[in-house]
Amino acid sequence: MEEGVSCMYRIYNQGERNKMAEAIRGKGVISGIAIGKIMLAGQNLDGYLVNYQPESKEVESKKAQDALTAVAETLRENIDRLQKQNMVEQAAIMEAHRMMVQDPMMAQKIEEKLEEDANAPQAVLKAAEEQAQMFEMMEDEYFAARAVDLRDVGKRVAKYILGVKEPELGDEKVILCGREIEPSVIAGMPTDKIAGVILGSGSTTAHAVIIAKARAIPTIVGLNKEDRIDKIADGDHVIMDGEEGKILVNPSEEELAGYNEKIKKQQELAAHYAQLKDLPAVTTDGVKVDLMANIGTHMDVDNALKYGAKGVGLFRSEFVFMGRQDIPNEEDQFKAYKEAVEKCQGNLCVIRTMDIGGDKPLPYLNIPEEENPFLGYRAVRISLQRKDLFLPQLKAILRAGVYGKVGIMVPMIINVAEFKKVKEFIEEAKLELAHEGKAYAEDVQVGIMVETPAAAVMTPVLAKYVDFFSIGTNDLVQYTLACDRGNANIAELYNHFNPAVLQLIQRTITSARENGIWAGMCGEMASDPNAAVILMAMGISELSMSAPSIPRVKEKIRNISSTKAKEILADVMKMEDGDEIKAYLSKVL
């Protein structure tokens, strides 16, 4: 890093060195300080498209088909490389891209566009854009962010047809910058060449951000507002602070020297965190909290274990259902769940049943569009009405339980009647498996996500029927505060320290302990080290989060006593404002 800084010194003349940098603010989503040269991501293809000379429809169709095949093969090679390098999360994302490239619907859309205009690269881009726009109209932030992936796939195929080469990297580290950055750009670059990522869009669920998080690359988002991103040019040298969301464009020598000291401390901290991997998350007076990982596919488990995860607190099974033309059968699901369970090496693997709704693009479910999908036909509400979906999934999870310790977690439960129906389905699944002579686990725990105010209020009753609670704060905060977490205009209202949210969380944890079951959390709040302290004081048993967050949370828990944490909690629960609570915790912790 020092070598990179000295290289930057050389680019300034004396006048420039004395001039303070322009500061730009965004939203820091992955902490860390980075210094590097800006590489604008996302090549503009307009010039190539203008100069392209199309041939007959038959020839253009063959060009498109050949490009789809070639790109799919390149992606397969990238996936193999990433898996060999243990970059499992990036490999999973590239696998999703490969499935998009090979999706018959994509090929069909391209042929439709070729009928309108026999121009292969334009047809590919238009087909991808049409599908991307469909994703963008969806209410769910995660699935809306997949529009970037579709455009990425379309652009890769079009570039192959046009013969466009990827930009070459020099010796200096780069900071990738763009309104949207194709996930394949980051996944295809060596980690040691990427100093940081700056995104115009504000989505924290974009695959570009997920890949950056898996590689612990400092990332800042949300610069599209007021066109702040336009102030950053290709080749600019910048300092970015992923903790504060601060970007210094063409910094002075003095600013560079100051941040170089911060980078040294950052490197020392990373080395310190690595030493915590095998240590328990236990307070100075012996109170233990299990730190688990949230995963999207079985391939994510290896990465989670590297950060010291003690199992999986949330396996988002909807990923098994995505990128397909039909419902995954029992055998396909069993293989995915079994592999995740085995990799947990005897630790708990909690598999959430399909959390899909009218806002998510699974055409084979034939779910009608809804005005407000978050309040509509989704998750367990679909499962209980679709035995063809629910029974094979339950059978697959029960079978996977033979290979380790498994929990079934049901999303969007709001009353006891729903949970009783779920248990009836589980018993039916067991009977079918016994009749078919298939081995299954009898001791699988069955719990619910507490993600609605209704469920939180009813936890004293629900606790009598379930084996565990897992608090899904992403939706619980949203529903409790009537605040869409993806709406930038009201982003300041979305606060997991809001007293109303804290009271519902405390009620849930208390209900669990009074009824002899465990309570965990799998929402974003679990990855907040300061929040972890008060959650531990409330009596939470487990916290599940993105794997890179585990060391920071572990350190915070290991450096405080439960007695002190309870004193802090008592102060917090007297406060009347979420921002006041957040500031107080930052001060005392």
From TrEMBL:
Principal localisation: cytoplasm
Biological role stated in the UniProt entry: General (non sugar-specific) component of the phosphoenolpyruvate-dependent sugar phosphotransferase system (sugar PTS). This major carbohydrate active-transport system catalyzes the phosphorylation of incoming sugar substrates concomitantly with their translocation across the cell membrane. Enzyme I transfers the phosphoryl group from phosphoenolpyruvate (PEP) to the phosphoryl carrier protein (HPr).
Ranges of residues in domain Phosphotransferase system enzyme I N-terminal: 25-146
Residues at which phosphoenolpyruvate binds: R316, R352, N474, D475, R485
Stretches assigned to the PEP-utilising enzyme mobile domain: 171-245
Coiled-coil segments: 65-92
The entry's keywords: Coiled coil, Cytoplasm, Kinase, Magnesium, Metal-binding, Phosphotransferase system, Sugar transport, Transferase, Transport
InterPro entries named among the record's database cross-references: PEP-util_enz_mobile_dom, PEP-utilizing_PTS_enzyme, PEP_util_C, PEP_util_CS, Phosphohistidine_dom_sf, PTS_EI, PTS_EI-like, PTS_EIN
Protein name: Phosphoenolpyruvate-protein phosphotransferase
All copies of domain PEP-utilising enzyme C-terminal, residue ranges: 272-560
Keyword match Iron: no
Organism: Selenomonas ruminantium
